[in-house]
Design a protein that fits this description.
Elements lengths: L2 H10 L1 H14 L15 H28 L3 H25 L3 H16 L8 H4 L9 H7 L7 E4 L3 E4 H13 L1 H5 L2 H21 L1 H9 L4 H16 L32
Helix pairs in contact: 3-10, 4-5, 4-10, 7-8
Length: about 270
């Protein structure tokens, strides 16, 4: 998709975008302060949701992901992963603008234009080879930049570990995503159907890691909660791998760590 199409994507949702940007300017006093420890006042309810999510994973997601991945050749899986990543870039651009990180917005715009044209609609990641790596973001990070704290920990049905801020961030990403404003509903749903397939491939690719957390941990809920908060805070620059900040050590915040609850697009 050429550059002019990206501008049309943003123009199609300009009223929502301008409203959000105005809100950000009004409330932003700098990024939210680094949280301390774990706030989980509804742990009992969250544990019930966690057990339901484990059942969904055990009896549906895990076996389906294994089957879906098995029938796909490697090049197809890589193409789907690239396509899903590229489909997320317009939303990244919107959030870059709302965060007033205009340099990243330009870089993501160029990346999207290159992959959507030279990369055959995003199936081939030409941009990374050209020196423009992925820079994913989301509305949860936008709220963080605007000064909203992470709030309490919450486990969401199907989606898994989150915080109150990131829960509202998911809703914001759905509302702001330019894809819904440009593509007909049927085509948008078809595109995101391919993203779901890629998420299933991701589940199968890291099956050993995810299974060890969900089914081999002494307390899978506490382990998943800890991993999510550590990785999320680290991605927002609120912890480092060496200072053990925010009330607990952070042994997972290094380049080799794979967050089992991060989607395949890095959000």
């Amino acid at each position: 998709m050429p550059l002019i199409s990206i501008l049309r994507l943003l123009s199609a949702q300009r009223h929502v975008l301008l409203t959000c940007l105005a809100l950000g300017v009004l409330v932003s006093c700098g990024p939210a302060p680094a949280p301390t420890g774990i706030k989980d006042p509804k742990e009992a309810d969250n544990r019930e949701v966690h057990e339901a999510n484990k059942a969904i994973d055990k009896f549906f997601v895990r076996p389906v992901s294994a089957g879906v991945s098995e029938v796909q050749p490697g090049p197809l899986r890589r193409g789907l992963s690239n396509f899903a990543s590229n489909l997320a870039v317009p939303n990244d651009i919107v959030n870059n603008i709302l965060q007033l990180r205009l340099g990243k917005a330009v870089e993501n715009t160029v990346r999207f234009a290159i992959n959507s044209t030279l990369g055959f609609g995003g199936l081939v990641d030409v941009s990374t080879v050209a020196g423009l790596p992925e820079q994913p973001t989301d509305f949860g990070e936008t709220l963080h930049v605007w000064g909203f704290g992470e709030g309490n920990y919450v486990e969401l049905p199907v989606f898994g570990p989150s915080t109150e801020r990131d829960m509202f961030g998911r809703i914001g990403d759905l509302v702001l995503d330019p894809i819904w404003y440009v593509l007909p509903t049927g085509e948008a749903l078809a595109a995101y159907g391919l993203v779901v397939v890629d998420d299933l491939n991701y589940r199968d690719r890291y099956s050993a890691t995810i299974d060890s957390i969900l089914y081999e941990s002494a307390d899978s809920y506490a382990q998943a909660r800890l991993l999510y908060l550590q990785n999320r805070r680290y991605s927002l620059g609120q912890t480092t791998s060496s200072d053990g900040a925010n009330g607990f050590e952070d042994p997972y915040a290094d380049d080799s760590f794979i967050d089992p609850y991060e989607d395949s697009n890095g959000n």
